[in-house]
Amino acid sequence: MTAVSPDSRRIWTAARGPLLIGVVILFAAVVIALLRGTGEGGSLDPRSYRPEGSRAVAALLERNGVRVELTGNASSVEGATLFVTQPDLIDPRRLADLSGRAAATVLLAPANGVGRVEPETRQPGCPLAAKAGAATTGGFVYEGEQRCYDSTLVRTGTVTTIGYGGIFTNRDLDSEGNAALALSLLGQHERLVWYVPSAADRSQQKSFGDLVPDGWKFGALQLGVAAVLIALWRARRLGRVVPEQLPVLVRASETVEGRARLYRRSHAAGHAAEVLRQAARDRLAPLLGLPVGEDPSEEIARRTSRPVTSVRALLYDNGPVDDRGLVALADELDALENEVRKG
Predict the structure, then answer these.
(1) 172, 180 in Cβ contact below 8 A?
(2) Does the pTM of the predicted model rise above 0.85?
(3) What is the DSSP pairing of strand 153-156 with strand 81-84?
(4) Residue 168's pLDDT is what?
(5) Which residues does residue 116 pair with via DSSP β-bridges, in sequence order?
(6) Please, which residues have CB within 8 angstroms of residue 235's CB and are 6 or more apart in sequence?
(7) How does pLDDT run across 197-218, given as a tens digit for each residue?
(8) Residue 143 near residue 28 (C-beta atoms within 8 A)
């Protein structure tokens, strides 16, 4: 005979591939977590001293009496200037609500522009930014009531939209009139709410199905259809029953003897007695015209003139019995069945 259960070598061979992939994924997750968890240093972070950070403009604002409040979940914006670094991550209805409650709002590079231009030094071309003068602007181009820097900075009501955030970074703040423009936009009031949204801000407003792209949904549907077709193709089709030649023929008498030896070896005389009584009841019921499972004691007593109590005790008594009593019980049941057949 050939062993078919997998040994340790086969298990390791089958598992090492997925295990290696899992280790790589875990390592990558740890590295990403460490890189993200380095603390203050993100782009447009008012605490960051890196070139892409905004510590310089935050320090200038504080020096001019503006209290800078960095937050990842803006709520209290009344009477303050709201600066949103990634407005596309916020649900439009929530963004409109925040803008309506804030005294002034500055949105950095939302993706609803009508065009794009390269960042370069531009003249304001509007009274709104005349004091700031030339500044580094570009990125998205917008429509608005007041348009400056070739429409890369517009204002409608209290909402100012700027298409490029270079003027707020440590790297470009000291170029041209960038500092003046940044201070004029963010220093409109004594309190500045510096709102740095995350992907969670938008995911909280939508269900999981809304976040899944349509292409992924269509691909999942195609995979589901393919899986069903493969299952139908590979499904086992049952035909007619085919008789199979048994390798060994075992006589019924040998099976009975083998089962009896098992009962004897396990000292299960009581269980064997119950098997004998149940078999006798099942054989007697059809002879008496009764359904299987119904008590045949009264009908047997009527046919054999035996007392009902003795018949019921013979068929249902579950008291202890030894091997000799088991033989006697079998003889009594045979005798009872013969009387019923003759009666």
Answers:
(1) no
(2) no
(3) unpaired
(4) 95
(5) 140
(6) none
(7) 875 555 445 556 665 677 787 8
(8) no
